[in-house]
Amino acid sequence: MPYSRFATVPACQHKPGAPEPPGRTTIERPSESPAGPLPAPRATPDHETPVKSSENRPRPTGAGVGPIEILFNPRSGAHDQAQAHACIAAVLAASGRDYRFVPIERPEAIGKLARSLGERARECDGAVVAAGGDGTINAVAQAVLGSGCAFGVLPQGTFNYFSRAHHIPFDTSEALQVLLSEQPQAVQVGLVNDRVFLVNASLGLYPQLLEERENWKHYLGRNRFVAFVAAFFTLMGGYRTLRLQVSTPQVQRKLRTPTLFVGNNALQMEQLGLPLAQDIDRGELAAIVLKPVRRLAMLGLLLRGALGQLGTSGRLLSFPVTRLDVTTAWPFRGRRIKVATDGEIRWLQLPLDFRVSPQPLFLIRPPAAEREPS
Predict the structure, then answer these.
(1) How far apart are CA 209 and CA 320, in angstroms?
(2) Which of 47, 69, 143, 330 has its CA 20 to 30 A from that of 90?
(3) Closest C-alpha to 69, from 124, 16, 127
(4) Within 13 Å and on the Cβ side, how many CA atoms surround 180?
(5) pLDDT tens for residues 114-125?
């Protein structure tokens, strides 16, 4: 039996009064499914919506009593994974909640696996939990959005913007207390061509910076200083200027820019010093367009961002949007462009359609409170 308790009866069918053996840590491999073999994955075109409709799906009403399905990424961040694993197992076993670890051994299988776990969690009043960094959380959120199941987060990454913005502690035992005691609340999700982004989505220079940062982290580790050094050398190596045509419901405009950045995280906007956090809290996205600048000026912008003073620069344009369509200034049909969503890079079909998802994510989190200053 894959669950840590009630070894003879499935978690959502436990009989009152049945003996409860001591909790034990059980790991299920990604090739397995709680409801039998998983169906073969089907390739989803960029323009096709991979998100299931939440119509007629029950909204979670409480912290739940069913099993907790934990998708665990052992490669995320510099956190002590063995210690975190042991802490999670100990706290959940002591709480009496059924739980199961599902380590993510093949990143390409996250979506299929999370969808299967989400269906079971919804039926059993349980929750699907992503344990990892922003990229892992994004992949699991993509799969469960629209399913109606409760979604939880155990932050294990480097930056953890999503969990921090929603007041989920980095400390594993404290995050577990949130998971066990708090209520699911609807939180905003951004979409670009039906790809989920919880923190930000971008094209141009920013995805290039992320790629180079990963190369540096491979040798020097994962921390903010390495990210800054990687950005410095990337800027010194040069970058292209994009010619874009952007449209909102109110205006259409042609732009030349090294990068277009669309944010969905109020905390990140505050830390960059941009006056757009309240717009995100009101249900909008934050669009940021950088004006063409020379390398030395770009380094100055990088420093301003690190100091939280980007909003004082006159070299960028920022504005709130509910929808933003983006294409290249020259209309090549079938053209694709590199886009980063929550730190993960993929090629998407133009035009790009940035918007707020009509379906929220039901995140188990503390009540909303004023964010602490960075």
Answers:
(1) 24
(2) 143
(3) 127
(4) 16
(5) 888 988 888 888
Provide the CA 44 distance to its chain's centre, in angstroms: 19
Contact between 339 and 191 under an 8 Å Cβ cutoff? The reply is: no
Question: What is the pTM for the complete model shown?
Answer: 0.77
Q: Which CATH number fits domain 195-356: 1.10.10.10, 3.30.70.270, 2.60.200.40, 3.40.50.410?
A: 2.60.200.40
Distance CA 133, CA 330 (A): 37
Q: Does domain 11-188 have CATH number 3.40.640.10?
A: no
Closest to 81 measured CA to CA, from 66, 100, 101: 101
Q: Which two tokens stand for residue 293?
A: 């600048």
Each residue of 95-113: pLDDT tens digit?
999 999 988 877 777 888 8
Alpha-carbon distance 374 to 370, whole Å? Answer: 12
Furthest CA-CA distance within the chain: 72
